[in-house]
Structures are given as structure tokens and as C-alpha cells.
Amino acid sequence: MTATLKLGVLASGNGSNLQAIIDAIGRGELDASIELVIVNEPNAKAFERAQAAGISVQRILHRDFPTREAFDQKLAQALVGAGVQWVVLAGFMRLLTQAFLDQFADRVINIHPALLPAFPGVRGIRQALDAGVKVTGCTVHLVDHGVDSGPILAQSTVAVRDDDDEASLATRVHEAEHQLYVATLQRLGSHKLVVTRDPISKQAHATLHPLEDSK
Predict the structure, then answer these.
(1) Which residue in 28, 96, 182, 199 could disulfide with 100, CB within 3.0 to 4.6 Å?
(2) Which residue, among 98, 88, 108, has the nearest Cα to 151 in the 3D structure?
(3) Active site residue 112
(4) What is the CA angle 11-16-21, rounded to 5?
(5) Does residue 141 belong to any structural domain of this protein?
(6) What is the DSSP string of 40-98?
(7) Per-residue pLDDT tens for 110-122?
(8) Rounded to an integer, what distance in angstroms lies between the CA atom of residue 37 and that of residue 159?
(9) Which of 112, 141, 174, 178 is catalytic?
């Protein structure tokens, strides 16, 4: 049986969210297949995780390309060639160009370790601690040209404890990420994604409708 979602995963580091997706597919909890994993750092553990799972994986290093556009073109070519329908960012530490996003319009998703729009950027957990909030969490969102600014698909909350430091809070946020990413991907396979954009502000909003409601 063909999987509902044909995924391509982009990763730069440890790849724990990649592993969560691999494990969920293996347990039969996620109706998806990972057609290709691409890492852009030579020592990314995500490469080893993909190899161990028997998944096609490539190293495409951004430093080998003269421009962001050239790098993204190579990424897109590899993903399209592998038959990828959805691009999943799993700790991918690069901003994607508009040309890449146009190639996979409303089909690139990311998970961020904060409750967006609060604390975007690379230090979401540190920002939450510095701000003294009592609740943080994680957000799955569509990727646009901004920094963690795309339409939100799902969120999960995590309480901040009085004795938390960045490491202890990160452990619980990442656990929530693993669950939320898998659950959101499963919903994408069983729902129709509708993205609407305000004609004036161009602000986008995403909703998921059960397939039987979208016929």
C-alpha cells in the first residue's frame, strides 16, 4: 500500500525529530514514507539516523554553493527527483529562498521550540526563560519567506518550572515536539489543508478540514 504522505526531510544536526518520524512510521502510527533525507552539515547525526533506517540520504553542503539560490535549486532538484510531496524541516538551520518555497507551495513545514508568534528565531527556549514566562511549548507551521512567521498548523504547551534551566526545559520541549510533529503530519494525511491570504495584508492563515468535509 502506498503511503499517504511522501516526505523529504531537511536536517542540519542531531535529527531527533527525524527519528521520531521514522519511529512513528515504523510503529504504524504515521501513514507516511520518507523518500529522501538531505543534510547540509558534514557531521549531522541525522545522516546516520537515515542510514540506520535504510532511508535514502544525501549530503548537500551549503558551503559548496556560491549562492543561497544555487544551493536551494540543488535541494529542490533532489527532492523533486525523489518524488517528495511534503518537505519537513527537522532542525534545518537555513532560511529557504522564495524560489524553493514556490517549488513546494504550502508544502514546507517546520517545528519551532516556542509558542509562536512569541520567541521566533534560533534561541526560542532561551528567550522564554529570559522572559520569565510560565508556559512555553512548540509550534508546527508552514514555512514562508520570514523567520518562523508562516501560518500555524498546531501547537503544544509545556509548563516552565521554577528550577528550569535551558537544558532541562529543552528536554521537555523536544519531547513535546516529537509528539506534535508526528500528530500534525498524520492530520495532514487525513485532512485537506486550506491556506487563505488576506488580499490587503497578505497575512496567511491555515486550516485543516476532514477530507469528507472537503468533497
Answers:
(1) 96
(2) 108
(3) yes
(4) 85
(5) yes
(6) SSTT-HHHHHHHHTT--EEE--GGGSSSHHHHHHHHHHHHHHTT-SEEEEES--SPPPH
(7) 999 999 999 999 8
(8) 32
(9) 112
Residues 153-173 have pLDDT tens digits of 999 999 999 999 999 999 999
Q: What is the CATH number of the domain that holds 49?
A: 3.40.50.170
Look at the chain and report how many structural domains it folds into: 2
Distance of alpha carbon 163 from the chain centroid = 29
CA distance 15 to 21: 10
Does this model's pTM top 0.85? My answer is: yes
The C-alpha atoms of residue 187 and residue 30 are separated, in whole angstroms, by 9
- Looking at the fold, whether 90 and 186 belong to one and the same domain comes out as no
Would you say 21 and 90 are in contact if contact means Cβ atoms under 8 Å apart? yes
Single-letter residue type at 23:
D
End-to-end CA distance of the chain: 23
Q: Is the distance from CB of 166 to CB of 157 less than 8 angstroms?
A: no
| Antiparallel, parallel or unpaired: β 204-210 and 86-90 | unpaired
